[in-house]
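Hey everyone, long-time lurker, first post.

I ran two proteins through the pipeline my lab uses and got sequence/structure pairs for each. Pasting them in order. The first:
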Amino acid sequence: MYPAVLIVDDETTIIESLEGILSDDGFEVMHAFNGYEALKKIEEGSPDIVLLDIWMPGMDGIETLKEIKKTSPNLPVVMITGHGSIESAVDATKAGAYDFLEKPLSIDKVMVTINNALNFRKLEEENIYLRKKSIEKNSITGTGPAVQKLYGEIMSAAPSDAAILITGENGTGKEMVARTIHQFSARPEQPFIIINCAAIPEETLDSELFGHEKGAFEEATSKNKGKFELASGGTLFLDEIGDMNINTQAKILRALESKTFQRIGGGRTLHMDVRLIASSNKNLEKEIEAGTFRKDLFFRLNVIPIHVPSLRDRKEDISLLVDTFLEKLSKQALGKKKTISEDALKLLIDYEWQGNVRELKNLVERLYIMVKPDHIDTEDIPLPYNPECKPAELIEKDLFLLEDDLTLAKKRFEKEFIKKKLSLEGGDLESAAKKLGTSVKHIKKSIK
């Protein structure tokens, strides 16, 4: 199918000349002699590109362009004029024109401009599709009042550049909320950079944020751009900022106030252009009272507060979540979608999900893999989600009581203790390690 071009000009000779050339090159060509006729042709014929004369009687080209952009914002429009000027070019660009051509027209330039505009439109459509898929992938699933309230807050906050503080328990989906805000912001095509403040050692956090010059410290064997620099023009997400040390907090505050920063070991001042979103599973006001979080930084970040509800506060969404997870797992495994009985689903609804959506997702994945039939029933739901579950053998977590050897008993207890904590943290190794005061490596070794 050949691209369709609409030529809008009040000069018959221009239309006939362009129609002949474009038709010879395989384009489908339409024409209109004024703005009103052009709008009607766009509605009826859906052209892929418009060549629009600026100077026409009645509705001129700029007015016509503005009307086109109201109904077809992604339709590329190339302006044509015999009275070219800087003012005309500026007005056309502001109104959304793709490019600007002057009469007498160079046929080669016309063809290059049309092909560039069509390629640009194709890229825009691909970006819109990818953005839509990204929004679907990262959106919070749910239809209950708590999630609807959250959606409203996201849509209200997203278009501005104001700082946002997202609070909520582990596993509720704070990162997904941040990604959704970015996708609906004025910066969706720009970078979305995440830094997990809880996972990065204190001694390297400053370098991760602000970057460093070669030789700034012993390990700095090359120049490194920090997250503020990498996120330029886009969004920087400071995940679990409540775990950031007080000294780095002061540097973040200074950067936010001055809109500038310097790489470690560097003398050049860099301008900061980021939309800042922070998150925390802690009560930062209590952290302020304890002296572990700066009050002035809190107020700087908490311009727009958004709280992500726990799964316990939106149990009406559990059925939809389970169905969504089973659907995604069946697509990933290219297998048949498994179903779950009403009684089994009721067990999940009645459970108090300390690990929130992340814990539920992990359990559904476990059931999908371990339950061989295509239907999940109550006997498939394990402890602690199923209080009526009574395995034939003694429960593993109690076997340490039967050990005569203290060392073996300790090992059994440690394994079950770590498993429980890991479950409460929704399977998040880093978060569980921090709560237990140990390393991710040690947890992996224990559960292996």
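...and the second, right after it:
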Amino acid sequence: MMPNAVTEVLNVEGMSCMHCVNAVKNALSSLTGVGTVDVDLADKKVTVGYDQDQVNLEQIKNSIQDAGYEVK
């Protein structure tokens, strides 16, 4: 278990299909420190488990935005 693990739930707009889900998962999984990514397409929510010592919420949001989706 990561010592400084936290979980955040983000509202992400623009996801409409499994391609979108995979794009978000791939973008976040490539970040060092991200442990878990769960995308709920119906509710437009992304749950991210990460180690605060390795990555911060701003980097996670930027990664989602870089993939072409809007974080609310």
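Reply from user beta_strand_b:
Welcome! Quick read of the second one: The two ends are 29 Å apart (CA to CA). Residues 22 and 39 are 9 Å apart (CA to CA).
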